[in-house]
Predict the 3D structure of the following.
Amino acid sequence: MTEFFHMGGYAAFVWSAYGLLVVVVVWNVFSARALYRAAQAAARRRLAENVL
Amino acid sequence: MSTAVTSLPAVMALVFARECRLAFRRWSQLAQPVVFFLMVTTLFPLALSPEPALLRSIGPGVVWVAAVLASLLALESLFKTDWDDGTLEQWALSDQPLAMLLLAKVAAHWCLSGVPLALCAPVVGYALGLPMSALGTLMGALALGSAVLSLLGAVGAALTLGSRRGSVLLALMVLPLAMPVLIFGARATDLAMNGDAPDAGLWLLAAGLIAAISLVPLALGAAVRVSFE
Amino acid sequence: MTRLTWFYRLASPPTSYATAGRLLPWFAVPAFLLLAVGLYGGLVLAPKDYQQGDAFRIIYVHAPSAWLSLLGYSVLGVSAGIGLIWRMKLAHALAAAVAPIGASFTFLCLVTGALWGRPMWGAYWAWDARLTSELILLFMYLGYLALRSSYDDLQRADRASAVLALVGLVNVPIIHFSVNWWNSLHQGSTVLRAGGPAMPAAMLIPLLESFAGFTLLFAAIACIRLQAEILNRERRPTWWMDSAIKGVPHD
């Protein structure tokens, strides 16, 4: 197991590459959902203004 | 019904002449890119060292980077006054194709900013220690390259017309697109400096110019029309 | 013309919004499954490379993100062109949706390339043709996003940035060629060349799974962003309110 995490001496490079992948994927998911939420809120506001 | 009494080439010539006349009324603006070009190239020997061998090896790159920046600077206000006073809108409403009128305008701009740069380049190249044999290539490559840069930069300048103009925005958009020009031009100069045949770079620049002349007017027309909406 | 009615129906905001929402789980679930399988395969099952040791395992992140960076710009450019020529809002919305995703994976590709370069070349950065092209591509994404954000009005931002994206799309092959030409004159190193056909199956299969997983993830995130962009382009999305009241879950 420690050998697996050791990555033949390249642990720092391999694990930081995979870690960055996780960061980028998480950023993508969260920023997309934040954009979606913001769009919904803005649409709700526009509809409320116009209903009258 | 079209009542155009003037043919397209004649109208383009008129646009070209108008641009030149306007530019010559503002001498200082015309000289600014050239002065900028000379100043930036002076920075490098001061920042690095006056050693001829070093200067010669970085010479082509310095001249090209300075030329790209200078032509970007000159493009910043290419369409601004014509857009503000409605000239561009009149062109769009006229019988003539907007794209071709814009092409004439860019051609005039190149004659007034690109050609002076190319003419100054041998002086700068000589000061940086480039051999005499490379100066002709430098000038030719810069003349071709600055034409492509004028065309690409004009698209960028047209796209920023209706936006909140940031001064860096144009550079951010145009510089990545201009990188092939920089590569071909600097490499041609570099090859000529080392006594190799620079043809490949020059032909590639010429091919790029032909592609730009045929495609850019379409993009220019579209970009200017967007700014009217 | 009648034959195209299905297309026009699909392109209408309510339909495209609902379609993106319906497609989302079909992209997202397999994406995460394939990513898990592919990355597990890459990290555990694949044998060490005989030359590069375990450092080659970075390929399972690096190569698919390079693919997504190009896929992203192609989708961006093509949909920008469609939006510009046929004045199609949906295409502009798609272009706006994929640009940040593509930029993020271009960034990932560059950083993993640097992390791979350090053990292989002894330096985080080398002016290798692929890495340099990728860097210019990142600059193009950033220019596009900068232009888009400089417009307050969404319609204008769409059309202006579409022109830039199209010019950029034409430029991508030229840039690629010029950078290769520049590099070939300078004897660049090309360690990052992915294994080629000689790659053994134990290495190749996780790579393919990873490629598929990345692509589906891209599609899934594009679906979420697309829904937001469609909604942002509607002045009065009453259809959206109706569907929300009817209880169709949208988040």
Notes: Chain C has eight helices and no strands. The interface with chain B takes residues 84, 136-137, 139-140, 142-144, 146-147, 150-152, 155-156, 159-161, 163-164, 166-168, 170-171, 174-175, 177-179, 181-182, 185 of chain C (CB under 8 Å).
